[in-house]
Amino acid sequence: MFRRKANRIAELERVVARVQRRLDEANERLAEIGGFEYEKVRRQVEGLRAEAERVLRERLAAKLRFEAELAERKTAQVVALAHARAAVEAELGDVRRQIAEARQELRQLEERDGLARPESLRPLPPLPRDGEAEAGKPPLPRDGEAEVGRPPLPRDGEAEVGRAPQEEGAGRRPLPEVAEQARRVVEREGQKAEG
Predict the structure, then answer these.
(1) DSSP assignment letter at 121
(2) Residue 166 and residue 111: Cα distance in Å, rounded?
(3) Which residue ranges have biased composition labelled Basic and acidic residues (predicted)?
């Protein structure tokens, strides 16, 4: 009885040892397989990381080149604008200097020759209002009234005092002559007012 149990225990121990040995072998195989796969995956990851770093460096270099080219173009534009502005300012200064010299020469000519402003540039004297008199002159007569110290003006068809009536159109001066005389009177009055 005891011997049977001992044999049974020994047999079970042998079975357990055999199973344990198989488990150990299986674990070793799994470790080898797992290690190989891990190494393979690790190499793939390192390759991908190196590729990513290479792409990143290339993009960074391209960005730096673009920024450098952009800065160079902006610098060239700034320099060109500065040169253009300096040229325009120099030309403008030359034009201003020529204008100042021309004005100075004109003033010197006027002072040397005693030239006054042209008649067309002189201000015209203000015209008197209706019924007002100029300085030192009697007021203008209204229609039908006579000036001071003169007989009243004759109406159409009437004769002046001491003169015989004239026929219509007789003795009248042409309109151009009257207009020219009126212009001379206005110029003479303007010169008197300025004097």
Answers:
(1) G
(2) 57
(3) 110-120, 129-195
